[in-house]
Amino acid sequence: MSAFTPKLYLKSNCPFCFKVIMFLTETQQMDQVDIIRIEGNDESEMNLYRQKLAALTGAKASFPTAELTENEYVTDSDAIVAFFAERAGINTDQAEGYQFYLNGLFPTYIARFKELKALQAQLEA
Hints:
4-stranded mixed β-sheet
């Protein structure tokens, strides 16, 4: 039986997905995962993956989604990073570039994302 390789379903314009990629890159683990990249601006592709991931996870699709062990799916970016940190035997605090993103650009991006969603909701109302 061959060893299982984790799979990551990542949306190209997702800050949570970038967080995972940033950590894997910094800790030199990119070659230990299969990356399935989904273009966030292609609605037909997004719908196909939303349906696929909903069927696999039994929940609404979100990104990132990881199959860390066979048939076990995780959608929380912090849990995905923790899995790979443990696998590498490191603490996430040791990944300086990851921490720089996590404590700098990431919260700003999330705040703008929430503002955009609120404005979209207002326009739709």
